[in-house]
Amino acid sequence: MRGPEPAPEPTMEGDVLDTLEALGYKGPLLEEQALTKAAEGGLSSHEFSELCIWLGSQIKSLCNLEERITSAGRDDLESFQLEISGFLKEMACPILYSYWEILKIEVQAMFDILGIPKSTTSDILLMLNQVESKVKDILSKVQKSHVGKPLLKIDLNSEQAEQLERINEALCCEYECRRLMLMKRLDVTVQSFGWSDRAKVKTDDIARIYQPKHYTTITMAHLLAAREDLSKIIRTSSGASQEKTACAINKVLMGRVFWTLKIEIIVQLKKKDSTL
């Protein structure tokens, strides 16, 4: 007997459609086949260029950008490409930059967070040294136990760092199916929140908050910077933990469920004994 066929895996086009719908897009590209066909045509596709213009207008209003993507440049493909290029450049889109320029953007973000004056140098190593000096200066002003000891107490060389990246990629691939399954369960749960009439008017607000949570913000840098306190495993089912987290509702609901299950088990056992 054949088992149930596995559900089709989510596609990148499906994710894009979900995002467009969450953003409020009402155009003709809300079907996967139409979106795929338009994307294959690129900027020569009228629907695709209209989608680019619409997305540009939404982003411009939110980010207060100077550059814009206009319908006037659509008739001239080269001008239209220049408009999109200028728009993405103002957004510091990493696709337009080389590897070193991407690093500069990330290091400059560190400068902003740490309050370091904007650097005039283009030397990445010099900029990183400035970041290191600033971090050491901040750490010198707090207690030694404030940050804690690192879990990883050795410095990785370039070969070890590359090997660690490969291990991370392998683990990501191995757990991809499980992650997608959990995300689908979460999607269904979140969608159920909007069934009530009162929640239907909040659909856009829920999507705006929830959609960014689809993608992890944890990187390899977080792993390398982990402190010893993360290695402490706290048993949430221990007596001490339950004593501090118990409340009246637990006693009512969990107690009723427990006794219902216990009675059901006893009934089933008695039925089994009577048939022997």
Automatic annotation (TrEMBL):
Determine the domain of life of the protein's source: Eukaryota
The GO cellular component terms are: tRNA-splicing ligase complex
Give the family from UniProt: Belongs to the FAM98 family.
Name the record gives this protein: Family with sequence similarity 98 member B
Note the InterPro entries from the entry. FAM98 (IPR018797)
